[in-house]
């Protein structure tokens, strides 16, 4: 099963909140209260997002956090990468591959194609898209128009 960590989910929630209120600085405390998340978790996620250049942090009484760019210029792939590291579905597509099968694997190039497709799909979704409510019965991205997802499995 492919699943991102809770910290990454929290990062997208925090980034979405910041994107909805770009006109003000946000302290870790106010963000924690606004999204009902524990302060230590908020601080950990904000640090990762700041270190990756997605957030600007300013110290002082009037300081806080804000997006480094327009929400239309920040992709979900960037947020995921900031917290999880590079998107790599399998060991062989990672920059730090240590797979024993790599030298004689016949499907490695196909895993690279799949990994690239997933990355590009996530890169297409911008932070600004996360602010737009979607009807519950309509998916905004259709890679397999004849297939449906049911209980985490693709059918069609």
List the helices and strands and how they pair.
Elements: H1 6-20, H2 28-35, H3 39-51, E1 55-58, E2 64-67, H4 76-84, H5 108-124, E3 148-150, E4 153-155
Antiparallel strand pairs: 1-2, 3-4
Helix pairs in contact: 1-3, 1-4, 2-3
Observed structural traits:
mainly alpha; single chain; Arc Repressor Mutant, subunit A
What this model shows, in words?
By secondary structure, the protein is mainly α. It has a single domain (6-133), classed as Arc Repressor Mutant, subunit A (Orthogonal Bundle). It is 40% helix and 9% strand. It contains five helices and four strands. The protein has helices at 6-20, 28-35, 39-51, 76-84, 108-124, and strands at residues 55-58, 64-67, 148-150, 153-155. The chain has a two-stranded antiparallel ribbon. A two-stranded antiparallel ribbon has the order 3-4. The radius of gyration is 18 Å and the shape is elongated. The two termini are 19 Å apart. The relative contact order is 0.14. The mean pLDDT is 82.
